Amino acid sequence: MSMSSARDRRPPLFALPLSSSQDHSRVDLEGLEAENDRSIAALSERVGALRSITSGIHGEVESQHRLLDKMALSMVGVRLSLRATADKMAKVMTEPHNKRVIYLAGGAVVLLFLFYLWLKR
Q1: 47 in Cβ contact with 53 (< 8 Å)
Q2: To 10 degrees, what angle do helices 96-120 and 18-94 make?
Q3: Which residues contact 24 (CB under 8 A, 6 or more apart)?
Q4: Side-chain half-sphere of 7: how many Cα atoms within 13 Å?
Q5: pTM of this prediction?
Q6: Strands (DSSP E) found in the chain
Q7: Helix (H) or strand (E) holding 15
């Protein structure tokens, strides 16, 4: 008689009877399914929270895009008006009489600014 055949005939030390083992595996499956359902419900809540966060982010991005578009349009308008002003100033500066008037006006502005700074002290 060999050792392996003697080992095969021995009953396992911690084995449950067959019917009890089947009940135990059924309880384990039901417990695992219940745990799975709880995990799925928790995951569903997290997905819902992420969905609402991403929806909020999307709304904020859309409003920021609209704001940037409005700012771009206003900057184009400012650029055009500044260019028109610069063109008019170039025309004025080409005439000598107007050039003196511009220098006088600029000097007056500088003097007023210096006077304002002197009064603030």
Answers
A1: no
A2: 120
A3: 16
A4: 3
A5: 0.44
A6: none
A7: none
